Sequence to fold (417 residues):
Amino acid sequence: MGEGNGASGTDCALRYRDMRVRMANRPVRNPVMPAPSRARFTSIELIGWPALGGDVRLSVAPESTILVGRNGAGKSAILEGVSRACRRATLGMMSTPMPGQFRCSAESEGSTIHYEFTLSPGDEPELADVAERSSRGPVGIWTEKATLASGEVLWEVKDGQVVVKGSSVMRLPTNIGLLTVSQHDEPRWPPACALLQALFRGVVSVPAGVPRQDGARHPVYMERFVSRKPPAPIGRGDRVTRLTRSILNWGDRLPHLLKEFEAIGQRINLWSEVSVKVYSAKGPSGDADEIGEVLVDDVNFGMLSDGTLRVAEILQHLITPRVTLLLVEEPETSVHPGLLSRLMAEVEAYAQDRQVILSTHSTEIVTRTHPEDLRLVERVAGSTTVRALTSAHKRRIKAYLKDDGTLGEFVFGGALE
Fold:
């Protein structure tokens, strides 16, 4: 899909359709992979990530983990490092900088799986096209290991050789690991392969700031040829356009998610109706085109307020079934305190079957948080550190709350420094 100028006037014959009705009885194409409900991160380590100035270990709460700290402490760098490491482990090549070593522990049905990878500098293969080399980024040498809590090695990858439980089973390029392989349903793969692959691929990041990046409101329309099933490339490529495309795809392929998206917005009093409308017309070449838009209470999605777009972006990722870990930077940006409270209630509800890690400067969010789920991020001598609250902190919090204070006031009043 590419962003167009809309469909209007006498240039084309417009045909309105509500896609939720039109697609309700059509078989789902390419359904979103359901998230593994039995796997959760318990700890994450980022090693050799220059943005943090040192090695960082984060203990991950079962549902929501809240990062607090001063500006520049490293909260955003932690979220970026987690996202990039998980993408690199499952998708292969990336041109963006990332941690040189990553470790994590995950729990599934009472068992603990330890996983780690190391990406060491290495020579690039001969590439005739310099542009291709640039687009692929540094290759490096990939090593990978997964073990159980007992110490049993599930698999290792070293120098391109995959060893499963002591037996060599296949060779890979030296710059990728086993989690990049699509088919893990073969008997030779440990079940943990598919489990970790789905867990890592379900890590989704919502960056800081509002989705509208240029500060100006523009109506967003998406265009495609009827004969072409997949969306055509998007013109703008910003967060508002990508969000519009996702919602349009829901209307086309997963109408139940569109209904859920609408319902959650109604619960938090953000909107009354979300609809997807598609117009058909004849393009300049004579081919049949479809032009779609998302309307929120009859307003084009691109024309909504910054706060509404910010909440909509968080909700879109929150309800996507494949998401296993949602990383959100400062969800309070441009959001009214009353709306923020209702949004966090929804986040807490959905965190029961998918984890959430968010950074915040909001007393409202911290006040809603259980002290066990808070993580204090500090920058000491150029290095980022993360720590949970100590027993002494918790005793002081308990006494503070008895005097009618709030946890948010306690934290941001400097009591932890």
Q: What stands out?
A: The longest strand covers residues 111-120. DSSP finds eleven helices and 20 strands in the chain. Residues 2-31+212-322 form one domain. The radius of gyration is 23 Å.
